[in-house]
Specification:
By secondary structure, this protein is mainly α. It has 3 helices and no strands. The protein has helices spanning 3-15, 22-35, 40-52. It is globular and about 25 Å long.
């Protein structure tokens, strides 16, 4: 198990039944990077991955 799996599992347990918009997620990612600029590249890569995820289906 990767260290990040614990955070993902906590997210799923705490908020797994909620529905969110991509706009809400984008705002949360921006706020996270503002508070944690050292993670800017990782958040950028995650956002790009999520944005292009459906490209693999084409």
């Amino acid at each position: 198990m990767y260290f990040t799996d614990r955070g993902i599992e906590e997210l799923e347990q705490r908020r797994g039944d909620e529905e969110v918009t991509l706009g809400w997620l984008a705002e949360k990612l921006r706020a996270f990077v503002d508070a944690n600029p050292n993670f800017e590249e990782a958040v950028e890569r995650l956002a790009t991955f999520l944005a292009r995820d459906d490209d693999a289906d084409e």
